[in-house]
Amino acid sequence: MTVTRFLSQHYLLREAAKDGVVLQVTCQCCWKRANYLATDLARLLGGDRPVVWPPFDCSGCGNDRYVKVKVHHPEPGDYGSMRIRRPGPVKMIQTWQVVSLGD
Question: Which of 3, 13, 26, 67 could covalently link to 54 via disulfide, CB atoms 3.0 to 4.6 Å apart?
Fold first, then answer.
């Protein structure tokens, strides 16, 4: 695969997941960075989504305007040392509301 394919709108998350790539996501405004497995994002966001689209809004800035995505093929030295954000347990939060007695 050529580098141009990775930068293309036609390179989809499902293809990246098959290729075993890591997506390096960086906000170029506040410089927050995170690495994600393409397989995780394909499962959560859908495989037909282009890789270059930001997966989330930046938690620092609150938007995706400056978020850039780069494709990284893991090398042997990356295993055991590269930090990856993975989906954790889903938490259910109880909310409360005020209602009239009898409702």
Answer: 67
